[in-house]
Amino acid sequence: MVNPYDSPPASPRYSYVEPHQRQTQTLEQAPSQRDDISRRIGEIKLIGAGPGDPDLLTMAAYKAITTWADIVLADKLVSKEILTLVSCPLFIANKDKGCQASGQQELFERATQALRQGLRVVRLKQGDPFIFGRGGEEFLFFRQLGFEPTIVPGLSSSISGPLLANIPLTHRGTASQFLVCTGTGSNDSIPEMPTYVAHRTTVFLMALHRLEALVQDLVELGGYPEHLPVAIVERASAKDQRCIKATVGTIVQTVKETGYRPPGIFIVGWACEALAQDSNQIQGLTDSLASEI
């Protein structure tokens, strides 16, 4: 069967990976396990999978998907390297544009059915479920059903992504604060832009599909200078991770020339050059910051 992460189907709205493909024992093969489940109250864990590299999973997340879960419900963005660790039935939602609502509803239905059967359910999400990942909405949904979820935090790409590209979000004398924003509001609306603060690093998630409009808003509404350093980190922690560096004024043209490979994060601020190896570049950064104080 083709790995569903590589080829998410348009219909049905989820993918099913047969348990025997992972060489594990199914419930049908283990009557004693089936009897135990019939007497068990369903449990659910909301788990963050981190940026994608299995080595960056927490131990709690690793144990949950390899030994604890009876079923795992994952989003398409969870890396195939992590999905191959799952040792039970796996469903992957199709949340492509236009399918988000139906894909989310399918996950709710599958989870509800499994919980009422007394199964242990893992809801696996990329990064951290509560950093623009609808974790709070899902938590409240399952609580309303009578199942209090256990939260297992994940390493958010908003923090790990920049670091994996040698970009610290804070740096003495350069950035004393950082802000994480979404580039896409509810129902694909345009969120309010943060105003420019020289000593702040701003990280945008889910923003690169509207990069040109975002940059325009940053300059015209947020007061961001066009010479401010920026970076795009694509596929953070993957083997083909790539970092594109430019400025506010040049990033749109740079991406048009280099192309873009999702998923990615957009980082704005002087911290993008804080660990630069070029001494002239570092001096230029210091001079630019000094002129704004």
Automatic annotation (TrEMBL):
Keyword Transferase annotated: yes
Domain Tetrapyrrole methylase span(s) in chain numbering: 46-251
CDD domains named in the record: SUMT (cd11642)
SUPFAM superfamilies on file: Tetrapyrrole methylase (SSF53790)
Sorted UniProt keywords: Amino-acid biosynthesis, Methionine biosynthesis, Methyltransferase, Porphyrin biosynthesis, S-adenosyl-L-methionine, Transferase
Keyword Nucleotide-binding among UniProt keywords: no
Gene Ontology MF terms in the entry: uroporphyrin-III C-methyltransferase activity
PROSITE patterns xref list: SUMT_2
Signal peptide: none
Pfam family for this entry, one: TP_methylase
GO biological process: methionine biosynthetic process; methylation; siroheme biosynthetic process
Region (Disordered): 1-34
InterPro entries: 4pyrrol_Mease, 4pyrrol_Methylase_sf, 4pyrrole_Mease_sub1, 4pyrrole_Mease_sub2, CobA/CysG_C, Siro_Cobalamin_biosynth, Uropor_MeTrfase_CS
EC number: 2.1.1.107
Recorded catalytic activity of this chain's protein: uroporphyrinogen III + 2 S-adenosyl-L-methionine = precorrin-2 + 2 S-adenosyl-L-homocysteine + H(+)
Residue stretches of biased makeup (Pro residues): 1-11
Biased composition (Polar residues): 22-32
Superkingdom classification of source: Eukaryota
Family of the protein in this entry: Belongs to the precorrin methyltransferase family.
NCBIfam families listed in its UniProt record: cobA_cysG_Cterm, PRK06136.1
Function: Siroheme synthase involved in methionine biosynthesis.
Name of the protein this chain belongs to: uroporphyrinogen-III C-methyltransferase
Organism from which the protein derives: Lobosporangium transversale
